[in-house]
Amino acid sequence: MTTSSQRTVDGVPAAAPEDAAGLPALGIDIGGTKVAGGIVAPDGRVLDTARRATPGTSVSETEDVIVTVVEELAARHGGELVGVGIGAAGWFDRTGDTVLFSPHLAWRHSTLRRDLIARLQRPLWVGNDADAAAWAEYRYGAARGASLALMITLGTGIGGGLVIDGRLHRGAHGVAGEWGHMRVVPDGRLCACGNRGCWEQYASGTALGQTAREVARSSPAAAARLLERVDGDGARLTGEDVAKAAAEGDPLALELLAEVGTWLGQGIADLSAVLDPEVVVIGGGVSVLGEMVLGPARSRLERALPGRTFRPGPRVVAAELGAQAGLIGAADLSRQSVAEHQP
Fold first, then answer.
1. What digits encode the pLDDT tens for the residues 162-217?
2. Residue 170: what are its φ and ψ, rounded to 5°?
3. Distance CA 53, CA 284 (A)
4. Is the Cβ–Cβ distance between 142 and 281 less than 8 Å?
5. What domains are there in the chain, each with its CATH number?
6. What is the 3-state secondary structure (H, E, C) of 69-135?
7. What are phi and psi of 205, to 5 degrees?
8. At 4, is the pLDDT very low, low, confident or very high (cuts 50, 70, 90)?
């Protein structure tokens, strides 16, 4: 029971400031296939994890799974937590109270934060998973200490986040960081967002697979080694197939990766014209390909950066925290949220 003198955040009991400093927080990363949770120490170490499959077609069932993962981890650690942070793929309003839209889950103008606070009875931060990953890299990873850090997550599409002067910036309406939907090719490839020529149609895992399929159709002889991986059916080629072939030295696969890297560098140059970041961190599944993508990206950035002979450009580096960045960032953002409510 909460007494009149007990500290509360969002109407639920919260640890006193002197106690919260040493307590872990709990982070949740929600994707289209899994709900991953972790207990995160104040120094960013992940102490324990749990995961469940995501029931993506049901709002209530997804919330049930989140609660299950939180309660399981909390029970294993005596229930003593600063708070809970939840990062999910989707667009949130600026407060994090409402999920406006999620491409892989059932949320549509859903009051996720209010619903979960009522069930969890813990201080709660809720927001975009790429924002959470960007914060994690700023706090504990490749962007530590940067005055302006920009993160780009390369996977099925392109997302990211922005940290300026030690604060996560989510935009006036909460949907900043959707870099993938900058239009880079007028009337180009059709994007799931409804526009044509979006950046993620040329610099993502999806783009890598699409370009490979196009080459296989137009020049099957050039794509012979790739086609061997899919029994000659070019329509089955994916970005993962290209990545594996590139790792084995297939010249065409390496060329396709370099093309993705070149598009990545062009987009970074465009973002640099607007934001002038100190560092650009590249995360997401495609980032594990390392210099096969980052090398061409840096080369293109050097050629395309506006005013390049008169100004420095950003460092372009691979993310350091891998697949756990989202839950680490979400946990720490819950800690930051509680700290901001200190009396």
1. 999 999 999 998 889 999 999 999 999 999 888 999 999 999 999 999 999 999 99
2. -105, 0
3. 20
4. yes
5. 8-138+324-340 (3.30.420.40), 144-319 (3.30.420.40)
6. HHHHHHHHCCCCCCCEEEEECCEECCCCCCEEECCCCCCEEECHHHHHHHHHCCCEEEEEHHHHHHH
7. -60, -40
8. very low
Q: Could you give the 3-state DSSP secondary structure of residue 18?
A: helix
Q: Is 79 exposed, middle or buried (0-12, 13-18, 19+ CB in 10 A)?
A: exposed
Mean pLDDT of all residues in 62-85: 92
d(CA 53, CA 64): 11
What pLDDT was estimated at residue 134?
A: 97
Q: What tokens does 335 get?
A: 């800690």
Query: Tell me, what DSSP letter sits at residue 183?
Result: B
Provide the CA 118 distance to its chain's centre, in angstroms. 27
Left, alpha or beta for 90 (phi > 0: left; psi -120 to 50: alpha)? left
CB 208 within 8 A of CB 219: no
Q: What's the chain's average pLDDT?
A: 90
Question: What six digits make up the tokens of 263?
Answer: 């598009």
Q: Which residue has the higher pLDDT, 239 or 17?
A: 239
Residues 6+ apart with CB under 8 A from 167: none
- What is each CA distance from 31 to 39, 152, 181, 248, 255, in whole angstroms? 18, 17, 20, 30, 30
What confidence score (pLDDT) does residue 3 get? 45
Residues 6+ apart with CB under 8 A from 134: 143, 149, 150, 151, 160, 161, 162, 163, 168, 177, 281, 329
The pLDDT value given to residue 93: 86
Tokens in use for 333? 């953002």
pLDDT in the model for residue 269:
97
In angstroms, the Cα distances linking 316 to 179, 313, 342 are 16, 9, 36
Q: Which two tokens stand for residue 73?
A: 């981890």
Whether the full predicted model's pTM is greater than 0.85, yes or no, is yes
